[in-house]
Design a protein that fits this description.
single chain, 204 residues, mainly alpha, 2 domains, 0% strand, globular
């Protein structure tokens, strides 16, 4: 059930009766899955492919951002995409480009923006980092979502245990995108990315 439907049910008569209020007697809200729980679920539904099963499950889990039904959908679509997915990072690449193309088709992005956000993953991360605080909500969330996916797609060792804290912060941001105001979305993306930059500088 979508969050807006749940909100409508939770508020009930305060916002007026509608088809959702008339269709359900009782609704329980389940928490989102942790990254580890999502990975375990992805393993259960993961089809047989030529990919590294553990890393593929982790990528599917990450891209679901804690939503169980999205894990199942992605696992089902992965079987159909087997020929187009040669590496685990391609799972993210295919999804990123599909979402950008859809956003262009709906007029959320213009041709130049769509081309940039469907391009090289490392450059896309920079584009997302530079998203203006003046961007309206949907566009800001879309650009940041694309940036999060591009980070998982492009960074070597993203799923290593040593990077797990940063992975979780981006995973949680992906889940919270729809509920956060644009300024918080951008701040949290910048914070997670600056953490990566700082750790790289220390390692150097």
């Amino acid at each position: 059930m979508a969050d807006d439907v749940y909100v409508s049910l939770a508020l009930g008569g305060i916002v007026g009766k509608n088809e959702f209020d008339s269709s359900f007697d009782h609704v329980e809200r389940l928490r989102s899955l942790s990254f580890e729980e999502a990975t375990e679920l992805a393993h259960q539904y993961m089809p047989t492919t030529k990919l590294d099963g553990d890393r593929a499950a982790e990528m599917v889990a990450f891209l679901s951002f804690g939503i169980p039904r999205d894990i199942i959908r992605k696992c089902e679509s992965l079987e159909a995409l087997d020929q187009a997915v040669a590496a685990v990072r391609d799972i993210a690449s295919v999804e990123r480009r599909e979402k950008v193309l859809a956003a262009y088709g709906f007029g959320i992005l213009n041709a130049s923006e769509a081309s940039a956000l469907a391009g090289d993953a490392e450059r896309v991360t920079v584009e997302a980092m530079a998203v203006s605080e003046d961007e309206r909500g949907d566009r800001c969330r879309l650009i940041v979502w694309v940036g999060i996916v591009a980070i998982a797609e492009s960074e070597e060792g993203f799923f290593d245990v040593s990077h797990r804290e940063r992975l979780r912060s981006l995973y949680e941001l992906g889940h919270d995108l729809t509920a956060l105001p644009p300024e918080d979305v951008r701040r949290r993306l910048v914070g997670a990315t600056q953490g990566k930059v700082s750790s790289d500088a220390v390692g150097a």
